[in-house]
Every structure is written in C-alpha cells, then in structure tokens.
Amino acid sequence: MSGFNDQFLYSIFIIALGYILKRSNIIKEDDGEGLSRIIFNLTLPALILVTFNDITIEYSLFMLILIAFVYGLFSAVLGILIFRNQSKNAKGMLSMMVPGFNIGLFAYPLVEGIWGREGIQHFGMFDVGNSFIVFGVCYFIGSYYAGEGARLDVKTMFIKMSKSIPLMTYIVVLILNLAGFKLPTLMIETADIISLANMPLSLLLLGIYLNFTFDKKYIKLIFKYMAVKYVVGIVVGVGLFILLPFDDMFKYTVLIGLILPTSMSVLPYAVEFNYDKRFVGTVSNITIITSFILIWIIANFVI
C-alpha cells in the first residue's frame, strides 16, 4: 500500500511544481500547448511502442475496447437526454464533455507508477475504444449543436482519428504484435529512453493547466455535469467490477477507467466550435481533481 501512496505523493508534487512554475510566470499556460504536442506525438507513442511490442496479448483484453466504446455511446446519449432542456449551445458543450476520458495525459502516469507495464497494457486497450468516442462521437456532438451541420460520416470520423498519433501507434503495434513481427531492438531501446519522460511531462502539464478560478454562474451547471459524469460512472464501474469474470487488473481498469477526467480534446473542440472555453477549462480542472481523489480512495480501500 505504501507504493500506491508514494506514487500519488510524487504525482501531487510534480503537478504542484507545474502549477507553481505557471503562477511564478517561469512557464506560461500557453507553453502547455507545445508541451502537450511533445507528449501526445512523441513520449506517449514511445511508451505505447515499448509496452505493446513484445507482450502476449490475451484476447480477453479486446473486451476493454468494447466496454470503453459501448459506455461512451451510452453516456453520450445520456448526456444529450439530461441536458436536453438547456440552450442549444449549452447542450452541445455539456453533452460533448460527458463521454470520453483523459487517459494518455492523466491515467498513464498514475497507472505506470502503480502497476507498471501491465497497467499500461490494460489501459492502452481501454484507450483504443475511448479514442473512437473522443475523436468521433464527442467531435460530432460538439459540431452538430454548434450549428456546423455535421453528421456522423464514417469517412470524416476516420480522417479525424487518423490524425491521432497515439491511436495510430496503438493500432499499428497491435497488428504487428498479433502478426508476430518484432520491431528492431535499436528502435525499441530508443523509444524506451524517450518513454521515460512521459510520466513527469504529463504531470507537469496537468499542473500548468490547473486553474482554480471560475465564474459563480457556472456552479449549477457544474454540479449537474459532475453528477452525470461521476454518479453514472461509479455505478456502472462498480457493477461491472462485481459481475465481470476476469482478473483483478481487468476489473480495476474498468472501475478506474469509468471515473477518469473528461478528455483534453474537448478544449480544442470548444475553441473550434466557439463554446465557452472558460467553462470547459474549469470543468476539466474539476474533473482532474475529482478523479485524482476517487482513484486515491480506490487505491487505499479497494485495491
């Protein structure tokens, strides 16, 4: 148990460091965009490459892809129904934020520190299903209610997803693994060195983006959103944890996966569709803090 708590303590210190650096104007929040590009396009793909290159993939793990995808569709429909009486703009913004999870930036640093490569393997499979929701369903919900006239066009959705380097890395490495093809040792060793930077950089970025100020007029909507996001996630997660006939690592992945923060992709979507960026940023920060607390509770009282 001390290992779990140590990892959370290290994570808090690194996140706090990022926040302090921002508040001291040593690093500006705008610098986070460049850092996030390094993480999502370099260190995270390197970690995926190393993790999935030489593992033996159990076919039961593909159930994690299905669970993440089906739950994403379910929560998207639920969000639209719950927020149906809001204005069109608010309904699009809130419904877009309900499905989809922040796995690459938030979950990976914690999971790697607690469970190592085994945890990354499980959450990586979960993230494949999640990616279809984030880059497909969330995008089209946001676009539709913003008046962009979007429709669920499969071609457009796949073009959007093909621009995600982490998702493409997942798919390519999984295909190579299932085909029995091993990547060159030099490539894997280089990727291994790069992947070591993923955890500290991701946690620093969370601190840089952390913001504790928000307009009081958002309070009612925030509480309603948080109830939809977390009450449903906890109920479904606990239910699947009890009912699923798989090993503990599989069950913990589902339980924790369904209470992760909202996807970071909703921030650029909010900019693209002219939603309230301050509201989206505020809610994203609150979900990060909430998920962090919930995962600590699970780590101490469930695992």
Automatic annotation (TrEMBL):
Compartment list: Membrane
InterPro entries cross-referenced by the UniProt entry: Mem_transp_PIN-like (IPR004776)
Keyword Membrane belongs to the record: yes
Keywords: Cell membrane, Membrane, Transmembrane, Transmembrane helix, Transport
Transmembrane stretches, start-end: 6-22, 34-53, 59-82, 94-111, 123-146, 167-187, 193-214, 226-246, 252-271, 283-302
Topological relation to the membrane, as annotated: Multi-pass membrane protein
Protein's name according to its UniProt entry: AEC family transporter
Source organism: Oceanobacillus longus
